[in-house]
Structures are given as structure tokens and as C-alpha cells.
Specification:
- The chain is α+β, with helices and mostly antiparallel strands.
- It has a single domain, classed as Nucleoside Triphosphate Pyrophosphohydrolase (Alpha-Beta Complex).
- It has three helices and five strands; from the N terminus they run ββαβββαα.
- The radius of gyration is 14 Å and the shape is globular.
- The protein starts with a strand and ends in a 6-residue tail after the last helix.
């Protein structure tokens, strides 16, 4: 899985999380995730296959949701970090919890891991 070590100046900087960000009003959550993967990691849309989405938190009386989009890549792709990242790293699922995680990501990690365990590998 691709993780981002967040720049010190960013919210909860100095922690590991998934690349991501806010959705523009005209975008689906999948479109926003693919755009953010490009902006923050240099991953091209054609390199990714969106598999599913998971709402991991609801805030402000259901006005805001935090949704994780799970996508596959055929291999560990080369990444290009932007200014929001100190580092990008491909990490095995077994290693994720060993890192200092962003609190929101840490709170959703077990839920996300159980969802990914149910997704068959693409051929």
C-alpha cells in the first residue's frame, strides 16, 4: 500500500497516512482520489483500477464524510512526491501499524484492512 509521510507544516504533519484531500464539488469520490493520487504521488489515472470505497468517518451531523478509495496498481509504481510529502513509501499491510500514523488513518486502519482482505486480487 502506498503511504505518505506528511510534511511537518501540514495538519498532523510528521505522521503517515494515505495520499488524499478534499473533493471538488463536481467530482465523485473516486475521481477526487485519482486526482489526489496524481497531485500527491505522480500516479496516472490509467495506472490505477478503483476497486471500492469505504466511508471511514462522518462528521458535523453527516455534512462531511471521510471516504477512502481503494485502488489497485499492477506493480509498485514509481512515485513523485509533492510539497505535502516528506516521503512516499510502498508498505506491506503488516507493517502499517508499526509506523506513527495520522490519528484519523490510525482510527480507520482495522476497518480498511478488513475491507481489503475481502477484495480478490486482480489478474
Amino acid at each position: 500500500m502506498l503511504l505518505q509521510y506528511r510534511a511537518p507544516w501540514s495538519h498532523q504533519g510528521g505522521t503517515w497516512a494515505l495520499p488524499g484531500g478534499a473533493r471538488d464539488s463536481h467530482e465523485t469520490v473516486e475521481e477526487a482520489a485519482v486526482r489526489e493520487a496524481y497531485e500527491e504521488a505522480g500516479l496516472e489515472a490509467h495506472q490505477l483500477t478503483v476497486r471500492t470505497t469505504v466511508v471511514t468517518a462522518i462528521a458535523m451531523g453527516e455534512v462531511w464524510t471521510y471516504t477512502t478509495v481503494i485502488a489497485d496498481a499492477p506493480e509498485k509504481l514509481a512515485t513523485v512526491p509533492n510539497r505535502e510529502s516528506v516521503e512516499l513509501r510502498w508498505v506491506s499491510e503488516d507493517e502499517v501499524a508499526e509506523l506513527p500514523l495520522h490519528p484519523g488513518f490510525a482510527a480507520s486502519w482495522e476497518q480498511l484492512r478488513s475491507v481489503t482482505a475481502g477484495i480478490p486480487l486482480s489478474s
